Amino acid sequence: MNILIIKLSAIGDVILALPFLEALRRTMPEARITWLVEEAAADVVLGHPALDRVLVLRRKAWIKEARRGRLGLAARELKDFLSQLRAEKYDLVIDLQGLFKSAIFTFLSRGRVRAGFDRSREFSHLWYNQRMPAYDRDRHAFARNLETAAFFGADPSSPLDLTAGVVFPKNAAAAQRAAELLAPAAGRRVALNPGARWPTKLWPAGHWRDLARRLADEPGVSVVLTGAAGDRELTEAIADGDARILNLAGATSLKELAEVFRECDAVVSPDTGPMHLAAAVGTPVTAIFGPTAPWRSGPYGSGHRVLYRNLACAPCFKRRCPDARCMVEIGVDEAIEAVRGILAENSPNAAS
Fold first, then answer.
1. Which of 27, 36, 44, 98 lies 20 to 30 angstroms, CA to CA, from 178?
2. Sign of the torsion formed by the C-alpha atoms of 33, 82, 135 and 168
3. 241 neighbors 267 (Cβ within 8 angstroms)
């Protein structure tokens, strides 16, 4: 059985799809399984022991090249990619994304069976020759993915817990790099990951600044700021020159960030891929939710805390809002108490 899984993005969605892969692998140990993923989320699946092959789609890079007038280069790279995609004959292609951008590659793969969700968005279901039952959008993505695995005969009777650290295996080289980066942060480490792609998911920078300082005042606690290179300006404003706060934004790859989180005692984050990454390596998360639904995409597993305002307009799933009360009204005191609770529950003396 030669299987192609298509889940292109985003980082958190790809992480939450890993249980599908694990369930499929347990049921079909002899199958050859390939995963098609976009470049930004590729580190989630590259090197995963349950995969035989990973195809990395540089879609956004091709679009940039085309906009810069390099149409020939973009066309050549796309042609080379399609050759790689079609180099193998797939018995089964499974589109877990359910969007036009994934459905088109499901079709172009020329798989014998091309499966995707019925009544998907952007009319993607028109490209499939086998339709999976439409899923309940209010079910947590983790549960939805296991149910999809069951549709293909996989046994989800012993589903993986994302907090067990099995879904995101430890990477030795990344772990060594994380240890070097974290060397200045002694004691119990709390990582603050303030960035988010949606403006509506951003907790006010002033709230983060207050949280960072109050945590740094806690006995035996070190504060670590994380994020992408594009978050550096935000994290510098939050650190504001405080030497007690270690700023690692832009200093890690995705695999290295996973190992940084693995070495932390708690993580605070809005609804982002790094939030799911922290949960996947077993670190308790304080998740700050506003425009999105924690019951759909909250940190999976036990020991996490979710801060959420159940306003009449929430969840709105809007990327922009002139009055983001859902985030602004979540106070620093709530976040402090959530982190303290996590640290107390996981302290060396908690059992006694």
1. 36
2. positive
3. no
CB 9 within 8 A of CB 38: yes
Which of the pair, 90 or 165, is modelled with greater confidence? 90
Give the Cα-Cα-Cα angle 99, 229, 265 (nearest 5 degrees).
Answer: 90
First to last CA, the chain: 51
Res 7: pLDDT: 98
Contacts with 27 (C-beta within 8 Å, 6 or more apart), sequence order: 149, 153, 154, 155
Average pLDDT over residues 79-96: 96
Q: What are phi and psi of 75, to 5 degrees?
A: -65, -40
User: Would you say the pTM of this structure is higher than 0.90?
Assistant: yes
pLDDT at 91: 98
- Average pLDDT, integer, range 263-285: 96
Given a contact cutoff of 8 angstroms between Cβ atoms, the answer to whether 7 and 33 are in contact is: no
Longest CA–CA span in the chain (Å) reads 67
Structural domains in the chain, CATH included, are 2-155 (3.40.50.2000), 172-345 (3.40.50.2000)
**Rounded to the nearest 10 degrees, what angle do helices 59-67 and 71-85 cross at?**
160
Burial of 270 (0-12, 13-18, 19+ CB in 10 A): buried
In the chain, alpha helices (H): 11-27, 42-45, 59-67, 71-85, 100-108, 141-151, 172-182, 205-216, 232-239, 254-262, 273-280, 294-297, 325-328, 332-345
Pick the closest to residue 247 from 256, 265, 234, 259 (CA basis). 234
Taking residues 78-86, report their average pLDDT. Answer: 95
Q: Please, are residues 65 and 73 in contact by the beta-carbon 8 Å criterion? A: yes
Count the Cβ atoms, other than its own, within 10 Å of residue 36.
25
**Is residue 162's pLDDT more than 50?**
no
CA atoms within 13 A on the CB side of 219: 1
CA dihedral 21, 6, 273, 220 (to 10 degrees): 30
